[in-house]
Design brief:
About 40% of the residues lie in helices and about 25% in strands. It is α+β, with helices and mostly antiparallel strands. The strands form 2 sheets. It has a 5-stranded mixed β-sheet with strand order 1-4-3-7-2. A hairpin with a 2-residue loop joins strand 5 and strand 6. It starts with a helix and ends in a 6-residue tail after the last helix.
Length: about 200
């Protein structure tokens, strides 16, 4: 992503993942939109779409996807690239839809790949600087319990039917992979093996 920022000749970049889709209301909002010179970037809510149903809950973190081009804007955290804020940020009213269209086999591989990278990052950052979620993830399998309770009872995702149930299950797969990698890390430390 930093490479794109270096080579682009445009003043602004609108970044869309292959799994993203602009909602109809967002398309209309963008058509009437003029960026402000005093604003660095614009934040978008992102809702998951599963089995044709949009889960209108803040499950997927909102992102700055429209922003002024600049060098070295992104930093890496695990498998993610996070934008560095360089000024004022405003929110768009309407949302982007995220629909994962990968095959089940590829999806499982990706979840494992993400978990390996993310587990390493958990131990490369000082514990005090981690988010509360990532602090919990430092304890193997605790986040499985916490996330299941949070999504089932706090957010009541089962009101979305099978789409909500599938999302809860998908999070359990990722958290399980991550916990296994965290457990392996601790095991290697006990056995005094340097390689993670």
């Amino acid at each position: 992503l930093n490479f794109i920022n270096r080579v682009t000749q445009n003043s602004y970049i609108f970044l869309l993942d292959a799994d993203y889709e602009c909602s109809r209301k967002l398309v209309k909002e963008l058509a009437n939109f003029t960026p402000s010179q005093n604003v660095f970037g614009y934040n978008f809510k992102i809702y998951n779409k599963i089995y044709g149903k949009v889960l209108k809950e803040n499950l997927y973190p909102s992102k700055i996807l429209l922003f002024k081009s600049s060098k070295n804007l992104f930093k890496r955290f695990g498998h993610k690239e996070i934008i560095k804020k360089k000024g004022h940020v405003r929110d768009f009213k309407n949302y982007i839809i995220h629909e994962d269209k990968k095959s089940l086999k590829r999806w499982f591989k990706n979840q494992y790949f993400y978990s390996v990278k993310d587990s390493k990052k958990l131990f490369q950052i000082d514990f005090s600087k981690l988010t509360i979620q990532n602090k919990i993830r430092r304890i193997p399998f605790l986040m499985n319990i916490v996330s299941a309770i949070y999504y089932t009872f706090k957010l009541n995702l089962l009101r979305f039917g099978m789409a909500g149930f599938f999302y809860i299950l998908a999070r359990q797969v990722y958290e399980t992979f991550l916990s296994i990698n965290v457990f392996i890390y601790f095991l290697r430390r006990i056995l005094k093996l340097n390689k993670i």
